[in-house]
Amino acid sequence: MGRRGYTAVFVLVLLMACAGGFLGGRFLIRRLQQDFGSRTTWAPPAVTPSAGESQITPTSLTPARPESTRSNPARPIPATATPARIMVTVPAPEGVEPPTVETATAEPKPVETAVVSPSPSPVAAFPFLLSKPVRHSTGDCPGNYILGLVTDRSGNPLSAVRLLLIDEYGNQEIQVTKAGADAGRYDFPIFGPPRRFYLTVVDAGTRPTSPRIEISHGVGADAQATCHWADWRRQ
Predict the structure, then answer these.
(1) DSSP state letters, 144-172
(2) How far apart are CA 186 and CA 231, in angstroms?
């Protein structure tokens, strides 16, 4: 056989190999499409249950892959089942309407709050208190004075009762009620500029036995007054 014979045989073999490869490739592509292509999932028709029947939701199953040909068997994929939900409808008896449940809304009742009036602060139980408000006058005393009368609860004058007077600058003076014809009376002469004074009944140790009161001399609403009267009574 010559060179031309060998060349023809080689070309023929090459053509047969190409044809075989083409056919094998098409066959492989079809098999892959069959194995991995999309499939339509079958769904059961919807059934509306009548009264008294139970509604059963069908189990969702993953379709199994079809069996492969004998030449290339494939392992079947096991189906995965989803648990079914069962809905049971209980019918009402004939001629009996289901009861209507009314939710009672309770109206809020107003909360009564007791208003407690603040009680006045208890006043210390002093033995002496003012028997009347302080009186301011002009010309009915011999000069500028703070003066008054100290009595018991029956109105009888008391002698030897001590009183302490302090001005706003800290100057202080003590007077004792008189005896005899002027029994129970006391007086503090005022010298110096206008200012405020503070008067208290005290005991022998200068401890207060009455509330402290303020008396203004030459200032405030009664700036023209020269006499300031403060009468005390034992309780």
Answers:
(1) SEEEEEEE-TTS-B--S-EEEEEETTS-E
(2) 10
Residue 161: what residue type?
Answer: V
Contact yes or no for 175/188 (Cβ under 8 A): yes
Task: Count CB atoms within 10 A of the CB of residue 86.
Answer: 9
**DSSP label at residue 174:** E
CATH superfamily ID and name for 128-234: Immunoglobulins (2.60.40.10)
* Residue 209 and residue 127 in contact, taking contact as beta carbons nearer than 8 Å: yes
Is residue 208 within 8 Å of residue 200, measured between CB atoms? yes
In tens, the pLDDT along 135-147 reads 999 999 999 999 9
* pTM score, whole prediction: 0.49
Domains in the chain: boundaries: 1-33, 128-234
Buried b (16+ CB within 10 A) or exposed e, 40-75: eeeeeeeeeeeeeeeeeeeeeeeeeeeeeeeeeeee
Residue 5, sorted as left (phi over 0), alpha (psi -120 to 50) or beta, turns out to be: alpha
**Residue 128: burial class (beta carbons within 10 Å; 0-12, 13-18, 19+):** buried
For 64-96, how does the pLDDT look when each residue is reduced to its tens digit (9 = 90+)?
554 444 445 555 555 555 555 555 555 555 665
Count how many Cα atoms sit within 13 Å of the Cα of residue 204 in the half-sphere of its side chain.
1
